[in-house]
From TrEMBL:
It comes from Bicyclus anynana (Squinting bush brown butterfly). The lineage of its organism: Eukaryota, Metazoa, Ecdysozoa, Arthropoda, Hexapoda. Keywords: Cell membrane, Glycoprotein, Ion channel, Ion transport, Ligand-gated ion channel, Membrane, Receptor, Transmembrane, Transmembrane helix, Transport. The gene is LOC112050872. This is Glutamate receptor ionotropic, kainate glr-3. Pfam families: Lig_chan (PF00060), Lig_chan-Glu_bd (PF10613). Its main location: membrane. InterPro entries: Glu/Gly-bd, Insect_Ionotropic_Sensory_Rcpt, Iontro_rcpt_C.
Length: 688
């Protein structure tokens, strides 16, 4: 019944047979190896959670994995892979490759590699590490072979540290041959391998038991015993901030604080350094010869154990390195130019929107027409009834006192407009209906004027509005060139599913110097892509350097004022998780992830981020204090209104002049010595 719950998957391209005469001739040795493996596996299964066991063996040691081993071990699934003696495991056949992939996919965390040919083991380990076919953080059991410890394989033992090597020994007493015993050793992690690999003994197995009873797979990363780890970094705010003063250099930032916390908890000493020509190569890219430069080059070549520098959690970086769990996410967007809008000439119309002005005009015309209609109706009523008091009876040809205000349509509109400007009427109008309407209209005018004045005051007191680019669509419509560092940014936009992102990729160029990009942005012809925090630092640095230049060089003030201010686009193109880098298949990552998760949960990352950005925010002079100051530029609107009045008045005067000389004087009845008689006759003619 016990064997039914075990899984046996055997892949082989040759006839499987347990030939007992190839390498090991004594049957007793194989039996002792089988018993040692049984004790090893049972010990692992009792202390750790084992999901499944992957066994890789050849035909020489196939007899070790017979029914006895599976009957006497604790029930777990087994993945059994039998390889040919001549198979090149640096390029395994399809069956072997698929078996390894399935075991990795199923989460097998114990590997038993028992091969007679040590070169096959070395090639299997190199292949599994390069393509991540093997789980390097699993527990490994393999035979001791000096070919595994060649200098070209030393990098493997910086990645596979949970391993036990079984070395067979014979005991000879006189002419009698005793039972075999095994020396159990492991890699000397965290101590570095210097030239020659010297394994470290952990226990001895003899006569069916372990001599010391130690934990064979103790966590070696929990205490690194002050081991020096190489940490490569790149200056990128706010992750890493390099502050230079005289000859000293101080490195700070969010990731430096995380590194110091990990160093304290895991007991290692970080050795910080920058890659060769870091300012030029930055994070690094793939060269024509296939190698990598910059920070990534240090990681790929195995020179650095950790990498700091705002590494994005992307498939590109995951392929080259191991990344910790993200400690934060950043908004990646564009730094764009902004332009001041000199709209002071239209300040008079800014307090109200277009539809509000249309409503005010319509109310003015409608109310003026109603006043005129009521005045005409009241005059006709008086003419019919002749009921006005004697004191208010108009003289011949004159209108009642108070009704002359609205007796003509032009006067009605003008006086209605005057009330809108809070100008009192020269005479209280006659007729109660007009008086009631006048009172209601005055209330409307007061509310409207108060709202207009309040809005006008706010406009005059606040700084001038700015034209900014805040969306990708606006950026595309602006036709300015976009820039970013590295080919991955261009690839990101090129593979975008929306049309706008693809249009940006067409105009995206590589930028090696962010400060040069800031200068081009200030000219109004460029936009730069990076994280919002770094763009904030870039814009503040540019603005402060420009202010220092203005203060030191007064003759160039006019030239500097032509530069645009820098604006960070409010819409995020993408929110990208940010992580700390480890070398590929690093054994430090699992425990480091635990500590980083705790650091994030208690809020230390947010605190360190605020500390890193505090100095930059305080240096930002873009948020000037709003002062209620009125300057001449803000009053351009008054002079424009005055100029419009002068122009219209002059045109009216010119029209009257033309009418007087070309119409009135040309009339045959015109007599300049009897002007009153001329106008009386003309009025009578109009009445007829």
């Amino acid at each position: 019944l016990k064997s039914l719950v075990k899984i046996f998957i055997v892949y082989s391209n040759s006839n499987v047979n347990a030939d007992r005469s190839l390498i090991v001739k004594e049957l007793q040795v194989r039996k002792e190896l089988e018993f040692a493996l049984i004790d090893l596996l049972n010990g692992i299964m009792r202390t750790d959670a084992v999901t499944c066991v992957t066994v890789v063996c050849d035909t020489v040691y196939l007899s070790v994995f017979e029914g006895t081993l599976f009957r006497r071990t604790i029930t777990v699934p087994f993945v059994m892979i039998v390889v040919e003696e001549s198979e090149d495991l640096l390029s395994p056949n399809f069956d072997t490759l698929e078996s390894l992939r399935e075991s990795r996919k199923d989460g097998c965390n114990v590997y038993v590699i028992i091969l007679a040919n040590g070169l096959q083991v070395t090639r299997l380990l190199r292949f599994g590490d390069r393509y991540r076919i093997l789980d390097t953080r699993a527990k490994y059991i393999m035979l001791h072979d000096v070919r595994l410890f060649h200098s070209r394989l030393h990098y493997i033992w910086k990645r596979i540290v949970n391993v036990v090597f079984l070395k067979y020994h014979k005991t000879i007493v006189g002419n009698a041959r005793g039972k075999a015993w095994f020396d159990l050793s492991t890699v000397p992690f965290p101590n570095p391998i210097k030239g020659i690999f010297i394994s470290r003994r952990v226990d001895i197995w003899r006569n069916g038991k372990f001599h010391y009873g130690r934990d064979l797979f103790a966590d070696k990363t929990r205490n690194l015993n002050k081991e020096v780890l190489n940490v490569v970094y790149y200056d990128h705010v706010p992750s890493v901030i390099v502050m230079k003063s005289n000859e000293s250099t101080k490195v700070g930032g969010v990731e430096i604080e995380i590194l110091n916390t990990l160093a304290q908890k895991m007991n290692f000493a970080p050795k910080l350094y920058q890659s060769f020509n870091a300012e030029a190569h930055k994070w690094g890219q793939k060269q024509s010869n296939g190698s990598f430069s910059g920070l990534l080059g240090e990681m790929v070549n195995g020179k650095a154990d950790l990498a700091l520098g705002n590494l994005q959690y992307t498939p590109y970086h995951l392929e080259l390195t191991d990344l910790s769990i993200p400690y934060t996410s950043q908004c990646w967007t564009f730094l764009t130019p902004e332009a001041l809008t000199d709209n002071s000439w239209k300040t008079l119309v800014l307090p109200f929107k277009l539809y509000m002005w249309i409503a005010v005009l319509l109310v003015l015309l409608v109310t003026g027409s109603i006043f005129y209609g009521l005045a005409v109706y009241y005059v006709n009523l008086l003419d019919c009834t002749n009921t006005l008091p004697i004191t208010e009876k108009p003289t011949a040809g004159a209108k009642p006192v108070g009704l002359y205000l609205f007796g003509e349509i032009t006067n009605s509109i003008l006086y209605t407009y005057g009330m809108l400007l809070v100008v009192s009427l020269p005479k209280l109008p006659s007729g109660w209906c007009i008086r009631v309407l006048t009172g209601c209209y005055w209330l409307y005018c007061i509310l409207l004027v108060v709202s207009y004045k309040a809005s006008m005051t706010a406009i005059l007191a606040n700084p001038a509005p700015r034209v900014t680019i805040d969306t990708l669509k606006e950026l595309v419509d602006s036709k300015i060139t976009c820039g970013a560092w590295g080919g991955e940014s261009k690839k990101f936009f090129l593979e975008s599913l929306d049309e706008i992102g693809q249009k940006i990729s067409d105009r995206l160029v590589n930028v090696d110097n962010p400060e040069e990009a800031a200068s081009r942005i200030a000219d109004g012809v460029f936009a730069y892509y990076d994280s919002s925090d770094f763009l904030k630092y870039l814009s503040v640095k540019r603005k402060n350097s420009r202010m220092e230049f203005e203060n030191s060089t007064a003759n160039n003030i006019e030239v500097s004022k032509t530069e645009r201010d820098l604006h960070i686009m409010t819409d995020c193109v993408v929110n990208i998780p940010i992580s700390i880098g480890f070398h590929k298949n690093s054994p430090l990552k699992p425990l480091a992830d635990v500590y980083i998760r705790r650091i994030v949960e208690v809020g230390l990352v947010e605190k360190w981020l605020n500390d890193a950005m505090y100095r930059i925010i305080t240096m930002d002079t873009s948020e000037e204090e709003v002062k209620a100051l009125i300057n001449l530029k803000k009053l351009y609107c008054a002079f424009i209104a005055l100029a419009i009045g002068y122009t219209l008045s002059f045109l009216c005067l010119l029209g009257e002049f033309i009418h007087w000389h070309f119409i009135v004087k040309k009339d045959p009845n015109f007599d300049k010595y009897a002007m009153d008689i001329y106008y009386i006759k003309k009025n009578k003619k109009h009445k007829i």
